[in-house]
Amino acid sequence: xSFIDEIRARAAGNKKRIVLPESDDPRTMDALNYILxxxxxxxxxxxxxxxxxxxxxxxxSCLEIIDPEKYKDTGVMANEYYELRKAKGMTIEEAxxxxxxxxxxxxxxxxxxxxxxxxxxxxxxTTAATVRSALRCLKIDKEIGVAAGAFLIEVPGSQxxxxxxxxxxxxxxNPEPNARQLGGIGVLSARLxxxxxxxxxxxxFLSYSSKGSAEGPLVDKIKEAISRAKDKAPxxxxxxxxxxxxxxxxxxxxxxxxxxxxxxxxxxxxxxxLNSGNISYKLTQRLANARAVGPILMGFTEPCSDLSxxxxxxxxxxxxxxxxxxxx
Length: 328
Prior knowledge:
Blueprint: H1 3-13, E1 17-20, H2 26-38, E2 42-46, E3 63-66, H3 74-85, H4 92-101, H5 103-112, E4 118-120, H6 127-137, E5 148-154, E6 165-169, H7 179-197, E7 202-206, H8 217-232, E8 237-242, H9 244-248, H10 250-256, E9 268-270, H11 274-287, E10 291-298, E11 304-305, H12 313-326
Parallel strand pairs: 1-2, 1-4, 2-3, 4-11, 6-9, 7-8, 7-9
Antiparallel strand pairs: 5-6, 5-10, 10-11
Helix pairs in contact: 1-12, 2-12, 3-4, 5-6, 7-8
C-alpha cells in the first residue's frame, strides 16, 4: 500500500465532515461516489435539489446536500460574513448574494461555524478564487501570520525524502515571499509533514547556492528566512541554503555540506518563489509519475485544500482524505 493510500485508510477510520462545493463538476461527483462507497469521509455537497440524481453511491448516510438558497442558516451566515467584510466596503446585500451564489465561500463559512471540518475546492475555480474564499472566511494562525500552498508528494520507488514522501512549498499562493513569509512557510510545511507522515521533518530551503557557494540578494533572503524559521521553531530541523542535489543526495551532501544534519536527507523542500515551487511540483508529478496532493492551504486554523483545475478524480479523493486527517 502506498503512503497516500494509507492516508485514505486513516481518513476512513475517523470520518470527518468535508465540504465539496463544486457539484457542477463531473470529477467532483465521481470522487464523491467513490468517497461514499469506500467510507473515506462524510461529505457535505453544495448544490441544488437536482444534484441528488447524480449521486450513484448507495452509502448516502454519510452525505448531506445543502442548497444555499434553502439552508436554514444562510441568513445568519450572510450576517456573519458581512461583519467580516464590512470594513472592506461590503454591504449586507452583497454578503447575502455571496452566501447564496458563491458556493466556495458558503462552504468556507460552514467550516468557520464548525458545521463542517474542512473543505476541498478548485476543480473548476482558480487558485485565486479558492484562496480568496479561505482568506475571507477562515481565521489565520496568528503565530505564523502567512497563508501558503503545499503539496504532499509521493514519488514511487524513490530513495530520497521519507521513502519518496515529501512536502513541497510554497507551490500555490505567494508569488515572491519575503524573508518573514518564507520562514513562516518553512515552519508550516514542517508541521504539516509531521502531522501527516508522523516522522521528523528535515526542512531544506532551496537556492542556486549551497552554503555560501554563491552570493547575491536572493541568497541573502534565503539565509534570513532560515534564521527567522529557526527563531520561530527552534526544535525543528531546518537548514540551508541548498541546491536541490545537496538537499536530497547523500553523496553530494557529503561533498558540499558535510556539517549539515539536513543535507542529503531533506523531506520538506522550501522553494524561494512560486515560479520554482509550482514548476517543480508539476515536473515531479508528470516526469516521475508522482502523486501530488494539494495545494493544501496552510496557515489557517481549519484545514482546507485547493485543487488544480487539471486535477483527476483521484486527486480530489486524495485531497479529501488529507484534509480529513488534518481535521481536529
